[in-house]
Amino acid sequence: MQYPQPESLASMKIKPYLKQLRRLSQVVCLLIFLFLFRQTDYSGSDIIPYAVNILFRLDPLVLATVTLAKKTFVTLLWPSFIIIGLTVLLGRVFCSWICPLGTMIDLSGRFIKPVTNRIRLSWLKYVVLMVVLVSAGFGVQILGFADPFSLLVRGMVFSIDPMINYLVSLFFDSIYISGPAWLSGMTEPVYDVFKIFLLPYKQSFFFLSFVSFFLLVSIFILEFFGKRFWCRNLCPLGGLLALMSRISFFKRIPVKACRHCDLCETRCRMKAFDKDRCFMGEECTLCMDCLEFCPEAITTFRFAPGKSKPPVDINRRQLMAAGIAGLALPVLCRTSAVSKTTDDALIRPPGALDEKDFLATCVRCGECMKVCINTALQPVFLEKGIEAIFTPKLVPRLGYCEFNCTLCSQVCPTGALEKMEKKQKHAFVMGNAWFDKNRCLVYAQKKSCIVCEEHCPTHDKAIKFNEINTMDQSGNSVLLKQPYVVAALCIGCGICEYICPVQGSAGIRVAGKGDNEKSGPGYAL
Fold first, then answer.
1. N or C terminus: fewer CB in 10 A for the chain?
2. Distance between CA atoms of 455 and 100, rounded to whole angstroms?
3. What CA–CA distance (Å, rounded) separates 43 from 322?
4. pLDDT band at residue 6 under the 50/70/90 scheme
């Protein structure tokens, strides 16, 4: 076998810098991601000046699933064509040069050493991709369980960010409370810097924080079974980019590993060589590591004419099984008993599309929940089945929707929450309040209370009173202002339920706008 001649000295000098350039690109993209993540927060203004949701808008998998589920193109997602064009031109360069999760996985490799590196399940990412796409085509969006950016951002929003804020604040608070005055004076400026550049606006608490933390951390735990295990075997975005990269003419030369050397095969983090030692271009992420491995200095990357390529690493049975699973999920969701429950309809954030379109368009990223000033938005679990899990809902007893805030609609990357001006937000109906006569102090205990009406933010108060003469619990005659809700004026912001002084379940509660069952002797509208 003849081997290519070593390249020119100038070319050999350039090669080591390609890997350094890749590392620089990774660091820059990771810093941009972290900066935008921190900017997805309340800063005293109702305007977010940065495109904090750009990561999801660059994701071709988000484009594909949202388009399939909604049956229309969402113009907000046009930046994903940049990544599509880059992949068609150069290959899977996104995975090793841009992806922040990929960069974090590479960093974790400095601490996590694989116990084995022989597991090859590269076909599995195509199965996951097929399940996600087919389910989306039938109206069920399961992207939140598989998309790397949904897993990363949601895990950071629900668990990592609150944990960091809690631990850092606990450390500085303990110094301020128990430490000497001189130490407290020294640490106060440091804490101020942390508050400006590192810590969120407030301490947040979220449902499903444990679940989100486990899903994110499991990606890094998989590194014990091989370098970039998630990227090689499970990532559906990686599978989609791999299929696109098969069109690219930019490739590694030579396309077959040398017989006298196995460094490329054994040290490639993506296992981009098949059992016949042939290079699989769709598995390569252009990390440029192999430029250093090659003792003959013959390995290079360049544009070359297209030749016949080996088939994708998935057989017909696996493909059919993936398609059947993708079809079964929507059917199971539609036939589940949960879908027939008569619980209160969910209170969706302001600007939410109709429920069907909302579920099809929401990518479960958690950014709207992160930016909510009062932590009123919380993730749904199984209240409405698997198709609604991780989508946002308003929980008024934990917080309320600020009347003049439109931040959640600004950060939504797919338009599941339509962007609104304040005037539109003031008129958007999220739900309707109703009085529980068995809980309200005025109705149940004949006590005077006007807290809910005082805090109602609508310009024409949605809560009004009827003055009545009645007997209190001691038998004395009292004049009470008996509250009731004017349904046409209520927007369902939840501040009345949040502020209600009744312990436990509030005397006034908010139901989603799809719930029309709050009537009868126990209720007061």
1. N
2. 43
3. 45
4. very low
Question: What is the SS3 assignment for 511?
Answer: strand
Q: Output DSSP code: residue 339.
A: G
If DSSP states are collapsed to H, E and C, what string results for 271-318? CCECCCCEECHHHCCCCCCHHHHCCCCCCEEEECCCCCCCCCCCCHHH
Q: How confident is the model at residue 61 (pLDDT cuts 50, 70, 90)?
A: very high
Instruction: Name, in order, each residue with C-beta under 8 angstroms of 156's C-beta and a sequence gap of 6 or more.
Output: 37, 216
Residue with tokens 């929980």: 395
What is the chain's mean pLDDT, rounded? 87
pLDDT for residue 404: 93
Residue matched to tokens 């559906």: 236
Q: How far apart (Å, rounded) are the C-alpha atoms in residues 301 and 373?
A: 49
Q: Is 505 helix (H, G, I), strand (E, B) or coil?
A: coil
- Tokens matching residue 225: 């079974």
pLDDT higher than 70, residue 3: no
Query: Contact at 8 Å (CB) between 183 and 175?
Result: yes
Say how far apart CA 121 and CA 249 lie, in whole Å. Answer: 26
The beta strand positions in 4-117, using DSSP E, are none
Which residues 6+ apart lie within 8 Å of 266 measured at CB? none
Q: Which residues are paired to 187 by β-bridges?
A: none
Amino acid at 284: C
pLDDT band at 521 (very low <50, low <70, confident <90, very high): very low
Q: Which two tokens stand for residue 438?
A: 């068995």
The amino acid present at 301, given as its one-letter code, is F
Q: What amino acid occupies position 247?
A: I
Angstrom distance (rounded) from CA 324 to CA 277: 33
- The residues, ordered by sequence, that sit 6+ positions from 286 with a Cβ below 8 Å of its Cβ are 22, 90, 91, 92, 93, 96, 97, 301
| 471, 473, 478, 484: CA torsion to nearest 10 | -90
Higher local confidence (pLDDT), 255 or 2: 255
**Which are the contacts of 57, defined by CB distance < 8 A and separation ≥ 6?**
51, 76, 77, 78, 79, 80, 413
Name the residue with tokens 């679940």: 211
The residue-averaged pLDDT of 179-196 equals: 86
Distance in angstroms (rounded) separating the CA atoms of residues 387 and 383: 10
- What's the CA gap between 128 and 190, in Å, rounded? 46
How far apart, in whole angstroms, are the C-alpha atoms of residue 463 and residue 380?
A: 29
Predicted confidence (pLDDT) per residue in 300-309, tens digit: 888 877 665 6
Q: Token pair for residue 407?
A: 């931040």
Tokens for 150? 């949904």
Q: What is the DSSP string of 415-436?
A: SSB----HHHHHH---EEEEEE
Strand partners, 509: 434
